[in-house]
Amino acid sequence: MQHFVVVGILVILTTVLTYLGLDVAGLAKHQHPVSASLQSISIDQLWNWEMMVISFLFSLIIVPMLYSLIVFRQKKGELEDGEHMEGNATLEVVWTVVPIFLVVIFAYLGGKSLGDVRRVDPQAVTIFVKAQQFTWTFEYPEYGIISSELHIPVNKQVVLKMTSADVIHSFWVPEFRIKQDVVPGRYTEYRVTPILVGDYKVRCAELCGTSHSYMENAVIVDTQEDYDTWIAEQVEIAKLASLTPEGQGQLLVARNGCTGCHSLNGTRLTGPTWLNIYGREEEMNDGSKIVIDDAYIAESILDPNAHIVATYASPSQMPAFVFTDEEIANIIAYLKTLK
Ligand SMILES: [Cu+2]
Predict the structure, then answer these.
(1) Rounded-to-integer distance, Cα 49 and Cα 129, Å
(2) Residue 87's pLDDT band (boundaries 50, 70, 90)?
(3) Are 200 and 132 in contact (CB under 8 A)?
């Protein structure tokens, strides 16, 4: 009897220590990124229950085993055989029924959490998402906006209808907890109800090629007011832009995800920055020098492998694009404005 009491106390102690250890290692909920969606609440709860039960089951197995190894070891001078045992029906019933019970409880909790996560709000805002190596573009069909940043209003369900232009990608915003594959040739859905205003990032969670790790775009949860302002601004920009060649070039660039690889502020992403691109002298990987002009830009877009900029991978990580002469001229007009 005394052994049972000691083991019981040790099991409880080890459970607490294991759980705290998991927490320090970042596996329990206190160390998770902030939870910024309605869906994340029930996912975090389920996760935390699992971590607690895992800590308990781990202790329940390890503690009696180590205790027996130490306390019931063969002591010096002990030569007789151990006591003979013929099984224990009660114990077997207990260790069958208790795990079944646990599994059923977790199936129920898991189903409930899945129901919470998948709950459909018929008024959800629809946004189309296109993934491509190595960027994301977001289209707001109601407003005709295309953006490389995802803006969503707080406390409203948003449904992302996602597809890929090339390989399989995966849409993941850690603060929302949910993750969904993005597959070429079909649409997958991602429902989220953001509850915390802030700036987050989408990460591609499916290894999709050499610049997979750069596949991060801004995800911004706005107050309803800021969201409405942003939408109005974008609508205005799109309207004005479509009137001038450089404006049309800017729209083409936004629609084709170029800025996922080319920054406008001087930082090197997958490709060279577009800041001061027009007229700059640049070294190619064969050592030659060129000055960036119309012909070179057109060639870079239609046939990226014709010349590769020094220090960038060969063959080029840039996919070849197909544009009309007029579209190319518009893109060039836009690139000229980036100073
Ligand atoms: Cu990807």
Answers:
(1) 34
(2) confident
(3) no
Cβ–Cβ under 8 Å, residues 120 and 38:
no
Which band of pLDDT confidence, cut at 50, 70 and 90, is reported for residue 206?
Answer: very high
Q: What is the DSSP secondary structure assignment for residue 211, as one 8-state letter?
A: T
169 alpha carbon – ligand 1 mean position (Å): 4
Residue of 181, 10, 21, 193 lying closest to 119 (CA atoms): 193
Ligand 1 centre to CA of 131 (Å) is: 7
CA–CA–CA angle 241, 187, 231 (5° rounding)? 30
Q: Which amino acid is at 209?
A: G
Dump pLDDT digits (tens) for 276-317. 999 999 999 999 999 999 999 999 999 999 999 999 988 888
How far is Cα 281 from Cα 66, in angstroms, rounded to an integer?
Answer: 71
- Beta partners for 135? 132
168 Cα to the center of ligand 1, angstroms = 7
